[in-house]
Each structure stands twice: as structure tokens, then as C-alpha cells.
Design brief:
heterodimer, A: about 325 residues, mainly alpha, 14 helices, B: alpha/beta, four-stranded antiparallel sheet, 17 strands
Chain lengths: ~325, ~450
Amino acid sequence: MSKQFHVSSNPHVRSASSTAGIMLLVILALLPAAGVGVYQFGYRAALVIVVTLCSTVGTEFIYGLFRKKTTITDLSAAVTGLLLALNLPVTIPLWMAALGGVFAILVVKLLFGGLGQNFMNPALAARCFLLISFPAQMTNFISTGEGALDAYTGATPLALIKSGQDVNIRDMILGNITGTIGETSVIAIVIGACILILAGVIDLRIPGSYLVSFSCFVLIFGGHGWDPAFLSAQLAGGGLMLGAFFMATDYVTRPITVKGQYVFGIFLGIMTGIFRIFGPGAEGVSYAIILGNLLVPLIEKVTRPTAFGWEGKKHAK
Amino acid sequence: MAKLTFKGGIHPYDGKELSKDKPIVELSAEEVMVYPLSQHIGAPAKAVVGKGENVRRGQLIAEAGGFVSAPIYSSVSGVVKAIEPRRVASGDMVMSIVIENDGLGVEEEYEATEYPEELSGEEILAKIQRAGIVGMGGAGFPTHVKLSPKEPEKIEYVIANCAECEPYLTSDYRRMLEEPEKLVGGLKIILQLFDKAQGIIAIEDNKPDCVKLLRDLTRGETRISVRTLQTKYPQGGERALIYATTGRKVNSSMLPADVGAIVNNVDTIVAVYRAVKEGIPLMERIVTVTGDAIKNPRNYKVPIGMSYTAILEAAGGFATQPEKIICGGPMMGMALFGTDIPVTKTSTALLAFSKDAVSAMEPGPCINCGRCLEVCPGRVMPSRLADAAEHFDEETFLELNGMECCECGCCSYVCPAKRPLTQEIKSMRKLQLAKRKR
């Protein structure tokens, strides 16, 4: 035969979506939150972001040299770096931020087999690792005085609520509060989430069931009864919005089944409620999500979809 | 009215504009014609002519090799040159009758039936069986077997599959536009076999002209309705189509007849009409020749047995050197090594693409995005099935209902990591089906 043709199995056409494209969208969707963080906390917030990005992408790159395979082009390390930075306080020592990046990529992701194989969200696992190892630096929410939040010092809104004080909901929604770099502005996070939802990258199953079940939990066990101000402060405060839209929805570490995603969201809502209301700390989102991550295989097993035409029938094995 | 549809599916670029507006052109047979003895599901046909024998057009050259089998007729007059293995689209060598066309066009006498409505069910089935008709949408299941369910009185729907959901294919579209009366006539003949059945002509809503034409044509028919389907692949898949039109569900352990439905594709129904009304056996079919590497994309009426090379020449050859040529549609068709293979009863199309989208993509690791689950019409978990198949984990594969896969290709199509999901699942399914037979 004179001409050589390609031969492969069907289908012979493919959609335009790609792993790197999805990751790029996630990065774009995180930019509003990152932007508000930099505007609010000053140039040092940008520095933290750059350091964690270099640390995660650099770790993946160096590991790739040993494996003779570059995987940084799928942009997943960049997403992890950005997410981690948004979960750190602006005052964190830079070496600590870098260490978090190395931990996230090397220990949580690559050692388990790389992209798609990790069972915990790398950015969150690294945050928890830093929280346990360096509790003082990780909860030092004092503004550096460079940004718009001049000399705004002290506790986060959630810590204030916990100690029984009042907070300003409007400031929490706009982002005029302290907290980690990316978690302060509900508006910026929701804009990013809308980008992801409109682009079809995420849907509302997990964030929706998470926020609804968390609200129910707070209303029942929060000790404030029907108190909209308290509920809104709980919803807008801490890492809940960032966690619900950007970390609980992480493909690799959430259930793949539709029913499982609802179960997962409800579980996260309840766990976050327990940690926040009954736990010693004001925060609980990170721990709730990584705990949820561990249950994913189990959730998937009991929520397998029924194949077409087998509804209400027994499978002949 | 809400559009009829199913859960899952995809909306690929359909490429139909390349060939849809050009009328069908009839091609005359070439000098040497090849008739594989296995052009259908079931036992291969048995040759009834010998080397050196003279045959006429329309003469039986191979008889059915059993009940689930179909006879084969010569589409030319000439001399049997050889009976030998020849390469077919799947890449296999299949025993074939090779006939040298004498160009005289000596033809058999056909026995036409002026009033098919006076025929009995047995007579109709006998005529269909004798004509060698098989499912011409690609599967090739002998039509007389499909039309002889165990309990014919339980058939409530006879569905004409006019969805044509495969991208690029327009042969059914052209057939409906140019010979709609034969489609309706064929459907009426099939309905004679099933007293209680309603005829449904199911068409995707991207063919409004066909919907209108067939609605006008069936205005007075109480037993036939034309239904519009949402345009979505694989709307024309048998299980998806039955669900969309009747709300009934068929799984892999059932036949459509189990839910009272029988599905036939456009070309098959037209062949039934010709066989019963005109007495002409199955000797030709419509083939879409298209793709960006084809000079003159259009539909051709092709005598069965003609080589793809000859059709390609008729279509002006390649506009550019293609990287990939496909027998059938881009979603479920087979990639070909070359064009030196014969057109059979199930050859729907010849596609030529200047760029092969698949080999240009490097498969990456699964990121668990779940898109394959969303689009799977079988409602299974393609990414997990492919994992199981890859690791040769038969137990998990069966536990995850791998046998419910219809190999439509939607999962591979949407996968952002470009994993060959359909391929993995298909090979494991093949193995399991072979094991069942043993």
C-alpha cells in the first residue's frame, strides 16, 4: 500500500476540553479573590502568592526531572500553589509558605502517584500541616499596614463571634476583614465561582448541599436560634466560601457519582458545623474537607449509579 | 411539544453541511466486484456459484447459512473470477465471491407485487428473508429475524430510526428527502406484520424539512406518526431511541421486542419496500462520502461489492492527503488501512480527514472530573470501567456493569485527559462476550 493512514479505535473526533484548559479556568476564577487579597493586605500578599507558586511548580518540575517527564504544563501545580497561598495569612514567614508548597506537591500529590492519584486536596492538606506545625504564625492575622486595611489588627470575624462579639456583615461580604489572603471577600469568591459554573467546570451539587446543610446545622445547634446576622456571619466568615466553591469541588478528591456529591456536601456541612460550634477553634472548613476526602471511596461505593434499564431490577452477574 | 430525548449524550460538530444539500448520485459498477460472504451478524452465507460461472445482475450467488444469516446477490452481470479471502473494513480477511463485470447489465426478472397489503405475514417475511436484507445502519442484524419476535402480538411500536445522529452522515437525510414514499411504504409493510403496533418515524430536529415532508405524506395514516427528537448523539442508538420515543428502557440482557418495540433504520425500511413491492433483492445502498480531505463530498447510490477506491474516485479523490480514513461515522466507524475494500450491506460512509484529531493528543492521567459519567447513555462509570479494563480486573468490570456499555464513544469524546476510554472498555467487553459464548 502506498499511502499510510492512521488507524485507531473509535471515536475519531474529540472535544476541545483539556486538563490544562480546566486548570487555567480555575486559576482565572481564583484571580478575583487573589486580587482583593493583594489590594487589602498589600504587596506582601503578592509575595506570598509568588513564593507558593514557585514552590509548588518548582517541586513538580524538579520531581519531573527525576522521572524524565514534565507535568507542570497541566497547570495543576499552579492551581495548588495559588489555592495554598489564598489559604495562608499574609504575615506568614516566606520559608514557611515555601515549605507548605513542597509538602502539598511532594508528599500529598506526587508520592501518591501524581495528578489524579492523591486522596486529599494538596493545598488543604498543606494548610493543615502548617496549622499543626506552626499554629502561632498560621493564625497571626495582623495586617502589615501596607494595604487598604491599614493597621487593622486583631481577630478574624469568626473568632470575634466565638467570643461573643458583634461583627459587620457588610465588611465581611466586601472583604474589609482580616483572615487568610483569599478568604476575606465573599463577592470576589462568588464571582470566581460563577466563572467556573458558567464554564461548566463545577456545578452547585457540592457547594449547594454543603452550604445548606451547614446553615441547617448552625440554626439548630448554633445556640442563637433564628438569628440571620449570626448565620450570615458564619456563612461569610472564615474559609467556608473559598472551601465550598474551590476546594470541596476539587475533582480528584470529591466523589465522582452524582448522589455521592450530595452526600459529600452534606457531610462537609455537618462536620464544619461541629468543628466551628463545638470545637475549640473558630475555623473548621479545612479539617472538614480533608476528613471528607478520606471518606470518598466509601461514599462512591454506596452511591454507584444504576445502569440504564436496570432500575428496580437485580443484576444477573 | 417537548423534544424527545434521553439522559446523557453529546453535541459534537456535525459536519453535515458538507454533503447534505447535494442530491444522491448513482454510481455504475466497476470492472471487478467483491462480495464478502459475511456481511451480517450470524452464520456466513454459502456460495452457490462456482468459478467461471456466468451470473446475471440480481442473481443469488450465496444462500443464507442458517436462520440467522442472509443471502447475497450479485449487483452486476459477469463471470465469477474467484472465491477467495479478501480484506474487509474491519481488517479481517473474509471469504468473498469475486465477479468480473461484463458490462452487459443482463438482469434477473423480478416478481413485483402490486398490492402488498394483500400479502400475509409469512409471505412478507419470506420476501424479506429472500432479499437478503440486514440492518443497514451498521449492525447488520438480519431483518427477517428481527421481524420475527417470539410474540408478534406483543409488539406495540415499530420505530423507523431516522435520527441519523452520527456526525457527518447524511445518507438517511437524503433518502428521506428523495424517496420518502418508499420509507412510508416500507413502514406500512412492516406494520402489516404486527396488528397492534403503531409506526413511529423518529427524526432529529436538525432535519425540519424531513419532518415536514413525512408529516405531509403520513397525514391520512392512522397508524403512523412522525416524532421530533432532540438533536444529540447517540439519539439514534437503539436503546436511547426506544426510551426517547416510548419511555421504555432496554438493558443489555433484553431485546427491544421485550418492551414491545422494533427499530429499523431508514435504508433498511426502504430495502424492505423494494423487496416486497418490487421484488428486488438488496444490491445497493447509499454511502456518504465526506470529510475535509474529500474533493466533492456527497451521497452516492452504490452497488454493493464496489471498492471504496472506486467510490473515492467518483468523489473526485482526495483534496489533500488524509491522515485518517474511516468506514462509517466519526463516533463509531472503523479506521481503515486503505481504500481497497468492498462496500457491503452495512457500509454507511467513507470519511477522510486531513488531520487525525486523536493521534495528535497525548493521553494524560484521569482527573476524576466525572464528565464521562454525565454523558454516558448507559449510565455507567466509564473512567472506572476503563481503569478496571486496563488492569484486567474482570470482576470489578462486571460489578460496575461494564456490559451495559454500547460503545458509542461519548466518554472518549468528552474526556479532557484524552484517555481512550471507549477503546479500553470495548476490548474488555469483547473478551467477556467471547467468554460467554464458550
